[in-house]
Design goal:
alpha/beta; ten-stranded mixed sheet; 10 strands
Length: 327
């Protein structure tokens, strides 16, 4: 298996790429189907990248003729954009970002509707983690005003949820200093006191936070009901509790919000038969996923967060055979 590293793309670069092909539906990547697949993941310190490696192995071992190159990326928005342009064939995405993409509501993309993205499955909930050092004076989200905060990569699903959290807490763009970076860099910066907090939306538990907590005393901030309600109204997020047993430094559950991590594929370049095989291989081999989130990947929850995203015909065929209720 070939592992390629892709430099994280800013949303502006994605916008330029889409504009070059024109905006609006029907202008996405096209061409013949292929079984030489590239899977867009996320940063190496998050969950998407190692999960991509494990799924690539599962797919190559169980779907005849398929090869899968999994690549580091800026996650949701970049993965969706690369699929739209026909450069990549699969990708992980937050459910809310995928819905924004197909509805032409991704910021800075001038209403471009990504019309060749098909849902394969919802995988697991992704919780918003708001992390501060234990020795800081930040006790609540309100205390983030005036602070330097890592808000995720440009164009990432994390950035959208970070913005929603801060807006719900009545913290405007001029009320804090944003650090636009990936999760791994942000935890390093927090440990080195270069930033005051980092907000990230990831599967729970995430290794990057476990590693940070081993060397630096940290805390997770909780969201109160008013803030959670405001976030739910403005995004596709839902209330969620990070369980106390997720991290050694927690004594009790932490109220926050979550979206769903999903796997999507090109409807132009991934055939119905191949998508069927990929979906079948995923759900028949979850016991080979060593990450904790593997325990959450189930057929019965595969439609969570799908919203307006079309189901890939190959995935639809598999779920119909399995008797899964479809939207």
């Amino acid at each position: 298996m070939t592992i390629r590293r892709i430099t994280t793309a800013a949303i502006a670069a994605l916008a330029l790429t889409l504009t070059a092909c024109g905006s609006g539906g029907g202008e996405g990547g096209s061409g013949e189907t292929t079984d030489d697949l590239t899977l867009g993941t996320g940063g190496t310190s998050g969950t998407y990248y190692p999960l991509g490696g494990e799924l690539a192995t599962i797919f190559e071992s169980n779907v005849d003729g398929v090869t899968v190159n999994y690549v580091e990326s800026g996650a949701s928005a970049e993965n969706l954009g690369k699929i739209y342009q026909g450069e990549w064939q699969m990708g992980f995405t937050q459910s809310d970002t995928a819905n924004d993409a197909v509805n032409g509501e991704l910021e800075d993309l001038d209403g471009t509707e990504l019309d060749n993205v098909g849902w394969l499955a919802s995988l697991y909930p992704e919780a918003a983690h708001i992390i501060v050092r234990d020795d800081s004076d930040i006790e609540s989200v309100d205390d983030l005003k005036g602070k330097k905060i890592a808000v995720g990569d440009a164009g990432s699903g994390t950035r959208a949820i970070s913005d929603a959290i801060l807006e719900a807490a009545d913290i405007g763009e001029s009320d804090y200093t944003p650090e636009i970076t990936d999760f791994g860099a942000s935890t390093d910066m927090l440990g080195d006191k270069q930033i005051d907090a980092t907000i990230f939306v990831v599967g729970t538990p995430v290794a990057g936070l476990t590693q940070l907590a081993a060397s630096t005393d940290v805390r997770l901030l909780e969201l109160d009901d008013d803030v959670t309600s405001a976030i739910e109204e403005s995004t596709g997020a839902e209330s969620y509790d990070i369980p106390a047993d997720a991290y050694d430094f927690l004594d009790e559950d932490v109220p926050t919000v979550s979206v769903f991590a999903a796997l999507v594929a090109s409807t132009d370049q991934v055939s119905e038969d191949t998508a069927y095989g990929l979906t079948k291989a995923l759900f028949e081999n979850t016991d080979h996923v060593t990450l904790d989130v593997g325990q959450l990947i189930e057929k019965d929850t595969a439609m969570q967060g799908i919203g307006d995203v079309p189901l890939h015909p190959g995935a639809e065929k598999y779920f119909e055979e399995e008797g899964v209720d479809l939207p």
